[in-house]
Amino acid sequence: MQTVKQVGVIGLGAMGQGMAGSLRRAGFEVFVCDARPGVAEAFAAQGGVACASPAEVGKSCQAVVSVVVNAAQTEDVLFGAQGAAATLAKGSVFVMCSTVDPNWSVALEARLETLGLQYVDAPISGGAAKAASGQMTMMTAGKPQAYALCEPLLQAMAASVYKLGDSAGAGSKVKIINQLLAGVHIAAAAEAMALGLREGVDPAALYEVITHSAGNSWMFENRMAHVLAGDYTPLSAVDIFVKDLGLVLDMARASKFPLPLSSTAHQMFMQASSAGFAKEDDSAVIKIFPGIELPPKP
């Protein structure tokens, strides 16, 4: 079995940057590409190779990990004017880490097969800190031969690599269900903090009590810390949950399955987006609530 030594990472955002660093620490030669000027070069200055396009990444690598925002960007990474699909050698593997419609992921696997390329449906979770430390979660599905080629690099990037099926789609379905919970939890956390502010409760005291009580959630603890700091620098933006909860509802609608909490949370993120907070941190969904004074940024 071929041993992968050169790995490409396309998309050096909050998660991709850390994943590329984990691969570098594990001894892989990492080729990187990002649409933003200077980002790939900054990474490569510490070790690795900066590439001008996905096509250039594909020329040098047996495996390419795509960590872009959505299906449209993934399409461009693969099949755009400078796409990697045309330059990857037959038998190479494409690891797709975006949150997408599972049916689109199934179709992508079939498209890549016609080109002689292997595919792993591999959405990710855990946040930037876990990506940087190689401790994130990967929800994967793919054929055994694709796993055999990319298993070492998956293990380098994640503490937990769940194998959910032998063909694409299952990984994306589980990620979408995770995003259902994540989005609902953020919306609920914002609603709870907003009520506390409206009722005159000290927000720092409320945060301390809730994070040590049964009502706590990972999202309350993580995102309401942003609210307390008055810092809405986007680690995950409001519009990410407009997209992801939209995918949740699309998946459920296809089988006429009711999702009342998801629907409400989606409307909350839509309201925040249309109010001008689309590119702010997703905790900015709290800004839709009237009559509250949010903690200022120091």
Write up what this structure looks like:
The chain folds into two domains: 6-167, Rossmann fold (3-Layer(aba) Sandwich); 173-288, Orthogonal Bundle (N-(1-d-carboxylethyl)-l-norvaline Dehydrogenase, domain 2). Strands 1, 2, 3, 4, 5, 6, 7, 8 and 9 form a nine-stranded mixed β-sheet that branches. The longest helix is centred in the middle third of the chain and has 29 residues, at 170-198. The protein is built from twelve helices and nine strands. Helix 4 (71-79) links the parallel strand 4 and strand 5. The model has no long low-confidence stretch (mean pLDDT 97). Helix 8 crosses helix 10 (218-229), helix 8 crosses helix 12 and helix 11 packs antiparallel against helix 12. The chain has helices at 16-25, 39-44, 54-60, 71-79, 102-114, 127-133, 144-157, 170-198, 203-210, 218-229, 238-254, 260-277; strands at 6-10, 29-33, 49-50, 63-66, 93-96, 118-121, 124-125, 136-142, 158-163. The protein has 298 residues and is α/β, with parallel strands linked by helices.
CATH secondary-structure class of the largest domain: Alpha Beta
Percentage of residues in helical conformation: 40-55%
CATH architecture of the largest domain: 3-Layer(aba) Sandwich
Distance between the termini: 55 Å
Major sheet: size, sense and barrel closure? 9 strands, mixed
Overall mean pLDDT stands at 97
Task: Quickly describe the structure.
It is built from 12 helices and 9 strands.
Ordered list of secondary-structure elements with their pairings:
Blueprint: E1 6-10, H1 16-25, E2 29-33, H2 39-44, E3 49-50, H3 54-60, E4 63-66, H4 71-79, E5 93-96, H5 102-114, E6 118-121, E7 124-125, H6 127-133, E8 136-142, H7 144-157, E9 158-163, H8 170-198, H9 203-210, H10 218-229, H11 238-254, H12 260-277
Parallel strand pairs: 1-2, 1-4, 2-3, 4-5, 5-6, 8-9
Antiparallel strand pairs: 6-8, 7-8
